[in-house]
Amino acid sequence: MSERMQTRSTFWLVALVLFANTYSARAGVLGYRTIKVQNGGSVRGMVRLSGSPNDITVTTGKDDKICGATVPLAKLSSGRNGGVKNAIVFIQNIVEGKPFDGTGHYLLDQKKCRYSPHIMVLPFGSPLEIVNSDKVLHNVHISELGAPRMSILNIAQPIRGQRSMIQASQIRKTGFLVATCDAGHPWMNAYIMVAEHPYYAITDEDGNYAIEDIPPGEYRLAMWHEGIRVAKVDSDRGKPIRYEYEDPYLTVSQVTIEKRRPVKIDFTLQLR
Question: Which residue of 184, 202, 247, 271 has the fewest CB atoms within a 10 Å radius of its CB?
Fold first, then answer.
């Protein structure tokens, strides 16, 4: 075999191995398959608050013309009847059902030194666009939520209006991610659920949710809410550079879905 042919053979062998490893890593994450759902049922309800958080207001100390001189570290929003906004309710153990609608554009914006939206769901395999709407430098650091915190990506956006597209291949598994800012805005955070299937709902301003077109069966219905209270503050020369929060809240309930019948399940967010 000539040296040129040997080089080409080696190239394609390496490419094949990399493809196989990538496919295996992605395929190993997902066990969900799409079907045509007939006679599906639904579940709806409300997430209510039990307990009172201690809201903390901090001095920004940087870019106050854009960010404001002070910002609240409020990580809990409640509406009528104690309903909790921005909880995620989802089915844990569903293996087949309807597909994602495929029409969503998933955007994480930075406005007045806040992430918008604060809570979002990203279908696995979808790209994520990140935008800086502020006239200041932001550095978007997205990590897996948990310990140890594994970094997924870290990008600087120094220009107002700058856009960065995060390709689907950069987010290689489902689960929860957290976005922070490493450019002197430690109060900034947002949470992203990378979802395997479309059976989820984010509660509205009054804590209501609804999930439709569920195949009949027995399921585990989970309610997730971010950690609320500050657990640790990392400082540099007396200035906060990172806020760490308590662990997220997770409550699971069993649910039986029957043909064409609605089920009502409420959750309580019991603060620690």
Answer: 247
